[in-house]
Design a protein that fits this description.
4-stranded antiparallel sheet, 7-stranded mixed sheet, 122 residues
Length: 122
Amino acid sequence: QVHVVESGGGSVQPGGSLRLSCAASGNIFSIYTMGWYRQAPEKQRELVALMTKNGNTNYADAVKDRFTITRDNAKNTVDLQMNSLKAEDTAVYYCYAEGVIIYGTLDSVNYWGKGTLVTVSS
């Protein structure tokens, strides 16, 4: 049984910073990709940042110079350092784990966290 849980969301002023954390737990052998998506109300979910187990990253253009993704493969955790936050960053941020392989199985499964709300306003 795999669980993906985010933390670190909250309310900040424009220009402020937040650090989001995500932990995947369970009898996990490996996770190929971990990262973050976000979704504002009545808008489609969009990619924020991803990192593969080998360290390859993919950032959305809107956050490329402001956000940094880090990952600890041994702990199955991924963080997102968000600096210089803007109002348009306001959204529910979802942790994503892709290609999760459970010990004793050959198939891989994708998992989503429940989301953590980030609100950027004055």
